[in-house]
Amino acid sequence: MNIVVTGAKGFIGSNLCVRLEELGYTDFARVDKETSREELTSYLATADFVFHLAGINRPKNESEFQVGNADLTMFIVSELERAGNNAAIMLSSSIQAERDNAYGVSKLQAEKAIEAYSQRAGACHYLYRFPNVFGKWCRPNYNSFVATFCYNIANNLEISINDPSAIVSLVYVDDVCNDLVALLGSGTDSGTRSVQPEYSSTVGEVADLLYSFKESRDSLITERVGKGLTRALYSTYLSYFTPKQFSYSIPSYGDERGVFCEMLKTKDAGQFSFFTAHSGVTRGGHYHHSKNEKFLVIRGRALFKFEHVVTGERYELTVTSDSPQIVETVPGWSHDITNIGDDELFVMLWANEIFDRDVPDTFVRPL
User: Fold this and answer.
1) Three-class DSSP labels, the chain
2) pTM score > 0.70 for this model?
3) Residue 188: pLDDT above 80?
4) Which residues are catalytic?
5) Domains annotated on the chain, with CATH
C-alpha cells in the first residue's frame, strides 16, 4: 500500500510514522516543510491513502492559516484528481472549525475541499476535529498546554494558569494513532470521526496530577498510573525528561545486618522494598495482626521460620534464588528469615500497606 503522510515531522505525524513502521509499512512517503511541490505531486500520483496532518496553527501572520491549511489541502486534492487517483484521505482538522476565527475558517475550508473531492472522485474521506491532543514529542510552549506544563514542571519552571476550573477535552496521541492506522484497508464509511476515549478534565486538575508525578520521587508514592487519563499523562510527563533525569536516589538504611530500601509506595496497594542480609544474619522476629508481606529471594539461600502466636505451631521453609518462589507472611504467625548461605542475601519485599510508624502493626516476638 502506498501511503503518504503530510506533516510527518510534526507531533502527530512523528508518532504515526513510528506506528506505521511497527506495522510493517516501511516504504511510505514522509512529507514535511522541506518536501517540494514536485515531490508531493509524485507521491500523490500513486498514493492509496493520504494522512493529511500538515497545517498551520501558530503563524506569524494570519494569512498563513489560509496558505498552510486551506490552500495546501486544495492543492493535494487537485493533484489527486489530476492524476486520476481516488485515494482515501484523512484530514487533521480541529474543533476550532466550528468557530469564526481565521484558524477555524481555514480548517473549515480544508474540510469542505476534502468533502468535495470525495464526492467528485468517489473516494473515502475521514475528517477528525481533534480537541487537545497530548503525548510524547509534542513541542512545549507552542499549542499544547499539556506539553508546556510537562516540560516546565519536569524542569522546575513555573507554569501559568489563568483559570484552574476551565474544562478541557483531551485525547492521547497513542489513541489517535490507533484510530488512524485502523483506517487502512478497513473500508470504513466516510465522514467525520472522533477518537476515543476522549477525556474531560480541568486545567487545574491536569496541573495537580503532573505535580504529583514530580513529587512521587521524593514521597515514593505513585499515583494510579495504570490506566485512563492518569496513565496517559504520566507517560507524557516522563517523555519530557532529559537523560540526566532518568534516575533518582532512594533512602537506604544500613546496619550490621545489611541494607533496607523502600522503592515504591502506592496509595491503596501497599509498597515495594528490598533488603540484604549478611551470612548468618536473621531479620524479622515479629508478627502482624493484619499486614501481609510477600518475599522473593533474588540472590542467596534463606531459611524462613514461622510460629503461631497462640498455638505455638511451628513451620520452617528453605528457599534459594535458583528456584524462585514467593513466601508469604500470614497474620497471627511470627516470622523471621535467616541467611544460611555463604554469600549476601538479597530479598525483594511487597507489603499490602504502606508502613505507618504511628500504627506499624508490627509486634516483636523472636522465634
Assistant:
1) CCEEEECCCCHHHHHHHHHHHHCCCCCCEEECCCCCHHHHHHHHHCCCEEEECCCCCCCCCCHHHHHHHHHHHHHHHHHHHHCCCCCEEEEEEEHHHHCCCHHHHHHHHHHHHHHHHHHHHCCCEEEEEECEEECCCCCCCCCCHHHHHHHHHHCCCCCCCCCCCCEEEEEEHHHHHHHHHCCCCCCCCCEEECCCCCEEEEHHHHHHHHHHHHHHHHHCEECCCCCHHHHHHHHHHHCCCCHHHCCCCCCEEEECCEEEEEEEEECCCCEEEEEEECCCCEEEEEECCCCCEEEEEEECEEEEEEEECCCCCEEEEEEECCCCCEEECCCCEEEEEEECCCCCEEEEEEECCCCCCCCCCCEECCC
2) yes
3) no
4) 103
5) 3-130 (3.40.50.720), 132-172+198-248 (3.40.50.720), 252-364 (2.60.120.10)
